[in-house]
Amino acid sequence: MRVDPQDDRLSFSELTTTVGRFIEDAAIKQNRRVILVGDSFGGLLVPSVAMRMEAVSGKDDSPVMGMVMVNPATSVDKTNWSTLAPLLASLRHLEQEEEEGTTPFLPTPYSVLGAAALVATVPDKNQFQRMIDFLTKTRVDEIQDVLTSLRDGYGILADNLPAKVVEHRVGTWLTVGSKVVNARLDKLNVPTLLIGGDEDNMLPTKEEGERLVNLMPDCTSMMVKDAGHFILGDDQFNLTSAIIDAPFDPFNKKRKDEKKYDPITDWKAPTDDEIREAVDSRVKVFTDLVSPQFFSTGSDGRRRLGLGKIPTPDGPLLFVANHQLIGLDLGMIIAQLLTERNIAARGLAHPVVFQGGNGFGAGAGPTGPPQRITKRNKDGPVDAPPGDFQTFGAVMVTPKNFYRLMSTGQAGLLFPGGVREVFHGKGEEYELFWPEKADFVRVAARFNATIVPISAVGSADSANILLGPEEMLNLPFGLGDRLKKSSESTISARFDRSNSDERFVPPLVVPTVPARHYFVFGKPFDTSTVDHDDRTACTTMYGEVKSELRRGLDDVLVAREKDPFKDFARRIAVERISGKPAPTFGIEELNN
């Protein structure tokens, strides 16, 4: 079927009916299913047609198996096109009538300003740059031909998209259609893929993608980085591939009986290349500033430089650490365990940090280079590349995940102090805020895990706390109340507490000169001698683990005063000249 671009004056309802009848002939009568694809205005027409097919055939018998809406004009009501388009169309009244069979020497005002509006809103920056490059690279002797082509181009615009057609389509199709369709989108239960350019200057497509994902029952958005309104004209985007991988699965690629990925048992340790890439691009920026020193402790309580004293038991291994201010040291701990001992310690992360940041150390984002295409639905990212947290084995901190890590003999990294320690207040540097329950020892003992405490020092000395969490909650002008509500709505990491019991309010901090970081891996605790059902024995070992971690903190806070390169400027100068980490205090300072 074809709609006459110049003379057609169908209403939006009539256009929907016409397309619907075509689908009836092409699909229903042929017992075929269809995927509706619409770009720009087509993205507004497609759901209207899908609604009609449901009305004609019934929701269960509709031939529409899926929709693809590309930069859809469902958001036209949030633009000024309903005002600008009639103004552009009114310029036709300034045109002079030409004799039949003649071509005007100069382009019309409508064609010039209309073309300018399209050039300003349709191409993305890459497409626009290609246009500029073409013009600037034109030779002088070709300029006349280019100008003639431009004049002809203006004529093509006026011939194929006359002012009267624009006026009709904006006033009758877009304005009316957006009102009709938007009022019913929340009831259209057709699997939908929304494709949009995040730099669409014609329509607010990025925001529209968020709206439709939340509004429609089954909608997945696919945002293409640096793409504009003419996304289907971008040779770097493949529409066919997008449809093949769409949620409505046109070729049944996704088997219903396919085993779902299990982050506990299906996870594979990162490759050497993945470790190297993460360390070089995201961890090294911190290690260069804080020159971390790592120590380990034997079963006799004696420390040594390096991680050589960490045991390699046959069963599970549990590292238990204090959580430093803002938690910027996580990447250094994980990376050192991997590179020095090939131990893949799987972090148990707070739900908010795990779902939101997904970054290694301080940075958010996926492992490797940024992705050009991102997809999400109501449940969050779809087919997202694994971020550093997933690549390096982190899982959400839940009793079930912790239990399964230990039961499968893996290494875990737990921060019992959680949010309370990472968002500590003034004067609370290196204090431990552990829960009273000894649950992690009971689970560890159930599977004969070896527990190794980690005492970490340095982050609290690299920043000044201007306002503590409690002071933040008392901020005027409603700011404190807003923080309180945000904290109460944040999912708690502790299953036995409500959201309001866990204060998720960061302090207001100002970075200072980076202090040297020290990590003391304490004396290992063998839980095979403890009955996990013996609460008294578990509580006793819990206290011993906490005391060993506290001992490590106290000892290194004293020993670092003997570090000849504790001073940032001196340490950095030596490391830049020598190309090696600056030495630290003698190991005897930790063994006094």
Short description:
This protein is 40% helix and 14% strand. The chain has 592 residues and is α/β, with parallel strands linked by helices.
Uncertain segments are 98-102, 356-369
Instruction: Give the helix tally.
Output: 20
| Proportion of residues in helical segments | 40-55%
Radius of gyration: 32 Å
Given helix and strand content, the structural type is alpha/beta
Q: State the shape.
A: elongated
Tell me the fraction of residues in β-strands, as a range: 5-15%
Give structural notes.
The chain is an alpha/beta fold and 592 residues long. 40% of the residues lie in helices and 14% in strands. Strands 5, 6, 7, 8, 11, 12, 13, 16 and 17 form a 9-stranded mixed sheet that branches. Strands 1-2-3-4-9-10 form a 6-stranded mixed sheet, covered by helices on one side.
Provide key terms for this protein.
592 residues, alpha/beta, nine-stranded mixed β-sheet
Layout: helices, strands, pairs:
Blueprint: H1 12-28, E1 34-39, H2 41-57, E2 64-70, H3 81-90, H4 109-121, H5 125-136, H6 143-160, H7 163-182, E3 192-197, H8 205-215, E4 219-224, H9 239-244, H10 272-290, E5 293-297, E6 303-305, E7 317-321, H11 330-341, E8 345-349, H12 351-356, E9 373-377, E10 380-382, H13 388-391, E11 395-396, H14 399-407, E12 411-414, H15 418-422, H16 439-446, E13 450-457, E14 463-467, H17 469-473, H18 479-488, E15 508-511, E16 518-521, E17 525-526, H19 535-559, H20 568-578
